[in-house]
Amino acid sequence: MASSMQPIQRWNYKLSLGLKIRNAYGTAFQDFFSTVMEKLHGDDYVRVRAFGTLGDKGCDGYLTKNGQVFQCYGKLEDASPNAATIVQKLGDDYKLAALHLSAIMREWHFAHNLVNGLPTEALLKIENMKTAFPQHVIGVIGPSGLEDRVFGLSDDHLFELLGPAATAEDSQSLRMEEVRNLVDSLIASIASNPPVVAAIGPVPHDKLVFNKLPTHWYGLIVAASQNAPYVRQYFEQHPTPETGENLAKIFSMRYRALKQENLSPSVIMDMLYEQITGMGSVTAQRQVAAQAILAYLFDSCDIFEDHPSKVVL
Q1: Packed helices 27-41 and 155-162: angle between N→C axes, nearest 10 degrees
Q2: Which CATH number fits the domain 7-162, given the four candidates 3.40.91, 3.30.450, 3.40.50, 2.60.40?
Q3: What is the C-alpha to C-alpha distance for residues 116 and 58, in angstroms, rounded to an integer?
Q4: At what angle do helices 284-299 and 176-190 cross, to 10 degrees?
Q5: pTM of the model
Q6: 174 to each of 61, 83, 178, 225, 292, how far by Cα in Å?
Q7: Three-state secondary structure call for residue 85
Q8: How far is CA 245 from CA 27, 201, 230, 296, in A?
Q9: CATH 3.40.91 occupies which residues in the chain?
Q10: What are the pLDDT digits (tens) for 200-247?
Q11: Cα 167 from Cα 8, distance rounded (Å)
């Protein structure tokens, strides 16, 4: 990546990439992985597809310069990963590749988009395969490994892959019409289920640290906090006075529901952000507006936790 890229751009790309990986279900993840590898390696990477009943022979992609075979696993939409299915896929796909691609395969790598990690059974299976088949290097590429490859791309390729990333200048030029459009959309989506209005309290200064947000979300919330007062002012002047508090209450409830699923702070923040922006590529101006709304909600103590020392019993 070019050294001229601003930290806030990298944070926004990291956010966009995380959403892209998590929302790439089934073959969509295979396509995304191959697109990344093609941009990174050019013609040295060969995308592989199953044709008819012939199957893919345990190979979704092949890197010619070092004999690396890649097999992808994209989780199914709205379905929890099944450990037995993953273990079965690991064994079956490797055996197919070893049988049909023995002349060209030196390494076999299993790429997946399970953001919360592989099940222990899959880890044990992989280690067993390494011992049982020493003739091949066997590896795993998870979301972190894919992220490393993505951030090895040029700025132009990053833009092609993930769309725009808001800059510091964008963050300093909040467009209130974007805030209004996002708020109107959110309010319309919850109009049929009005929340119980709750008071909004002050934010503890150590809230960002206490909630163990990852670096990119820490940076984005700090940068967006300069715009949170504008969002607060917008709600104070809104024709429907309770709009801000209603929205804050709804997002507090959504945060609690996500937390009960034992999701990481990063994943929870990603999902709350996507509930504001909607899915897909987002303009830089909309990124700034959505992050300003999140910063307002975060600063208002309606999402994430106060430090225990700040809580009044």
Answers
A1: 160
A2: 3.40.91
A3: 24
A4: 70
A5: 0.84
A6: 43, 45, 8, 11, 8
A7: helix
A8: 41, 11, 15, 11
A9: 7-162
A10: 444 444 555 556 778 999 899 999 999 999 999 999 999 998 888 888
A11: 6
- At 56, phi and psi to the nearest 5? -100, 5
Q: What single-letter amino acid sits at 91?
A: G
Please give the structure tokens belonging to residue 29.
């993840």
Question: pLDDT for 79-117, tens place per residue?
Answer: 777 899 999 999 999 999 999 999 999 999 999 999 889
List, for residues 131-163, the tens digit of each pLDDT value.
999 999 999 999 999 999 999 999 999 999 999
Q: What would the pLDDT profile of 223-233 be if each residue is shown by its tens digit?
A: 999 999 999 99
User: Would you call 287 exposed, middle or buried from its count of C-beta atoms within 10 A (0-12, 13-18, 19+)?
Assistant: buried
Q: What mean pLDDT is predicted for residues 169-192? A: 89
- Residues 284, 266: Cα–Cα separation, whole Å: 20
